[in-house]
Amino acid sequence: VGSERSAAHLHYLDRGDAIASITDLCPAADWVERETREYFAIEFTGRKTTRSLMIRDGDPIGINLHKEAVK
Amino acid sequence: VSYRIPIGPYHPALEEPYKLELVCDGEIVSDAVMHLGFNFRGIEYLAERRNYLQGITLVERVCGICSNVHSLSYCQTVEQLTGAEPPERALYIRVALCELERLHSHLLWSGTAAKLIGFKTVFMACFTLREKVMDALSAISGNRVNYGMNCIGGVNRDIADPEAILGILDELENGITRTILPIFLNDKTVESRCKGIGILTREQAKAMGAVGPLARASGISQDIRVAAPYCVYDRIQFNVPVETSGDVRARLVVHALEMVESCHILRQALRALPGGPIHTPTPAGARYKVPAGTAISRVEAPRGEVPYQVTSNGTDIPERVRVRTPTFMNMATVRLAVVGQQLADSPLIQASCDPCYSCTDR
Q: pTM score, two decimals?
């Protein structure tokens, strides 16, 4: 992957953003989406469940974000 | 009447913590819910706070079993960004280390699987052989785990005496082909305990993105060493064993055959070991600045593909380090494999995907 090429076509998501889930098309994305939500606080819309995978129920999401980003 | 059985986080069979809730109808499992994250150490977060040289030591601790592939994949991404070309000898030493690590990981898994099958003689045989691999690893690197071999632009230590390793290899191959492989292929105990158990079909494996020996036991011939060769795998002759039945027995056979192939690869790599330096000259001190950009590298770990993505912003500290471990993909398939199976078979089915939770949680 060339860095110039990828940078031109990527749209970066930020904490609290939402994006449509692809689990209906690709079941393998299930855990990836749950992990991304819990580590980086990005929501995936259109999922049947968003049961927590890596964190315990009730814990704040976004645990992998920089400290300065978590207020 | 259906009831839920919580297993873990302290697991009776495996060493690492994770929680599984099995929903059972009588003795038959009808659903499984998994909770992970008990081993979360924030490695990716920490890697964004360490410089590139400290990062090597850090990522090597993602996993206790396949530690070498993590530092290798990390170093390969940084080498792509900096343009450092490891010398030939270093590439061959990296291949040798990768295969020794695969041997020790597969022997560990075979032993654990044999123990869960209830065949402790095979467990003993596997661990006796594994000690020989550990001796070879500690002779090369000085360590039994976390070898600390990879550096940016080569390896830290030379294989001083390839002949000694070749000697250990002969004993190993003998043990694998004469003891472990025939037992996994022909033994009645293994067959009755593993045949038709925990079937993961090819379609399921593909849909869930399974990787490594688990995918190869379900008929998906996918191996990064062949598909996207790194180091010098393109110069080495070897087969990728594939089984189509997708049950626990297929996984045992794939692991055993892969160990034999690893011996072949090791022998070729050690015999062809070229002379010369083992790493490129590196700038002195910890201020190892890396040009801005993103690089991705893929390595075939014992459990499957390990991709690393490193994004640099031009300083000595990476902007982002992304680690995708094979168990993260493989563990999700357990839910499909245990449904409809006997409750008593579920520990074996869970273990048969060769789980590593410290990798999964990071």
A: 0.86
Query: CB contact, 8 Å: B271 with chain A?
Result: no
The amino acid sitting at B17 is P
Contacts of B271 (CB under 8 A, 6+ apart): B162, B166
> Phi, psi at residue B154, to the nearest 5°?
150, -150
Q: Please tell me the number of Cα atoms within 13 Å of B151 on its side-chain side.
A: 16
B192/B353 Cα distance (integer angstroms)? 19
B108-164 tens-digit pLDDT:
999 988 888 888 898 999 999 999 999 889 888 888 888 888 888 888 888 888 888
CA distance B346 to B339: 9
Q: What ipTM describes this predicted complex?
A: 0.72
**Nearest CA to CA, how far is A10 from chain B (Å)?**
12
| CB-nearest partner of A64 from B33, B42, B208 | B42
Contact B271, B165 (CB under 8 A): no
Nearest to B155 by CA among B274, B50, B39, B72: B72
Distance from CA of B121 to the nearest CA of A (A): 37
